[in-house]
Amino acid sequence: MKLSKLLVLASNSPRRKEIMQNAGYEFTVKVIPTDESFSEEMPVEEVPVFLARTKAECFRENLQDEIILCADTVVVIDQENKKSLVRPSTILNKPADHAEAKEMLKTLSGCVHRVITGVCVMTAEETIGFADTSYVHFKDLSDWEIDYYIERCKPFDKAGAYGVQDFIGMIGIPKIEGSFYTVMGLPIHRVYEVLEKYVLRN
To answer: Is 97 among the catalytic positions?
Structure first.
């Protein structure tokens, strides 16, 4: 799928690259290191769009006739579903090691949590930001399943310590309310809506 402008995917995520390739887009990958910190007072629903916009802003100074696509995904567990957390809604970031990954997965086990992916699409003419939310139902996971998954897939680059397309998603997620691709890291149906006007149909 060719666009009237050069499409730049500003992400090192192999999942986002796979989604864009499977959707048929022609694009290049370019990443500018970005400070991904945010205020703890910021509502969790605003964090992924804030981070996606922050990543996009790094391209603004040298932006020409291009489309910059940035995204950020957060895993959120809420008060009514959490087991060991203290804030009303808590973002589970990327785990530092096996122990932290196991703690996160035990927290998610048997619960419903939210996955929110924020997107920013920037051109020289406009900047569009949005978020898409899916609700993920986890079955009760055994310690063996968790340890096997961590050892096999090493989910240390994944928010919440899991990938929906991995073993743990295959055997541990019986239901998703919302887009599978939002959980995977990019709500491609929403991205397509924004990029549709740039598609070359001839």
So the answer is: no
C-alpha dihedral, 159 to 165 to 170 to 175, nearest 10°: 70
Please indicate, yes or no, whether the overall pTM of this predicted structure exceeds 0.85.
yes
Nearest Cα neighbor of 75 from 157, 160, 186, 16 is 160
Buried-exposed string 25-57: b where 16+ CB fall within 10 A, e elsewhere: bebeeeeeeeeeebeeeeebeebbbbbbbbbbb
Sign for the pseudo-dihedral over CA of 113, 98, 117, 191: negative
Q: How far apart are CA 6 and CA 28, in angstroms?
A: 8
- From 65, 72, 97, 132, the catalytic residue: 72
What is the per-residue pLDDT across 50-65, written as a single tens digit (0 to 9) for each? 999 999 999 999 899 9
